[in-house]
From TrEMBL:
<keyword id="KW-0805">Transcription regulation</keyword>
<keyword id="KW-1133">Transmembrane helix</keyword>
<dbReference type="InterPro" id="IPR027383">
    <property type="entry name" value="Znf_put"/>
</dbReference>
<dbReference type="GO" id="GO:0016989">
    <property type="term" value="F:sigma factor antagonist activity"/>
</dbReference>
<feature type="domain" description="Putative zinc-finger">
    <location>
        <begin position="10"/>
        <end position="38"/>
    </location>
</feature>
<dbReference type="GO" id="GO:0016020">
    <property type="term" value="C:membrane"/>
</dbReference>
<feature type="transmembrane region" description="Helical">
    <location>
        <begin position="92"/>
        <end position="112"/>
    </location>
</feature>
<protein>
    <recommendedName>
        <fullName>Putative zinc-finger domain-containing protein</fullName>
    </recommendedName>
</protein>
<dbReference type="Pfam" id="PF13490">
    <property type="entry name" value="zf-HC2"/>
</dbReference>
<keyword id="KW-0812">Transmembrane</keyword>
<dbReference type="GO" id="GO:0006417">
    <property type="term" value="P:regulation of translation"/>
</dbReference>
<dbReference type="InterPro" id="IPR051474">
    <property type="entry name" value="Anti-sigma-K/W_factor"/>
</dbReference>
<dbReference type="InterPro" id="IPR041916">
    <property type="entry name" value="Anti_sigma_zinc_sf"/>
</dbReference>
<keyword id="KW-0472">Membrane</keyword>
<keyword id="KW-0804">Transcription</keyword>
Amino acid sequence: MSAVGHDQGQLAAYVLGGLTPGEAATFETHLANCPTCRREVRELSELRHHLDEVPPEAFLEGPPDGGDLLLQRTLRQVREEEGAQERKPRRFLAVAGAAVLVVVALGAGVLVGRQTSPEPSTVALPVPTATAPVPGTRDLAATNRDTGVQLAVRVVPAAGWVRLHAKATGVREGEKCALVVVTKSGERVNAGSWLVSEKGQREGTGVDGSALVAPGDVASVEVVTMDGRNLVSAQA
């Protein structure tokens, strides 16, 4: 097996522990006689350290705000080195393989543990088990055509109260906002508040909150300003 013939996906799969025992044994036999591939495996293994910057929740329900910066940096490095591919072909392939490793880890939901040894074969790679939504969970969404604000919110029932995972987009920078749960009787319960940043105006703001409202009593979830303006309301 020649180093030139290696698929970078195979290198990434080896570092992630995605090969079968037989495939891994065959690859390690080649690795013992291929300094180039050993270097690339070390580089991909080093990249795994940086995945510790991404919180576990990103692998379960999607990356939080800023959670994709590592992938963006890696891909940007690939593009910058693409022009030097003829001069440094193996280095370019190693960086490209690193990008593949990040995409595999983020896209496939692999939770990578902290590496405690420089040898890839000693790294544990626990894979989280997918969990079903809590019974009674509801996904609400709405767009206010007048304000241009959009709201998507997941209402998760608890024992006599609710958790909320919301994202509000289209709100101007500097606005002081609150996430409000409205009951069927008209009571309004504040579930969280935030100040819209420049990034929040551009990409939306994610907000996690909770409200002491019985799950079956939720009539709507709203985004309002601190001075009382209703920006958007999602009906349950």
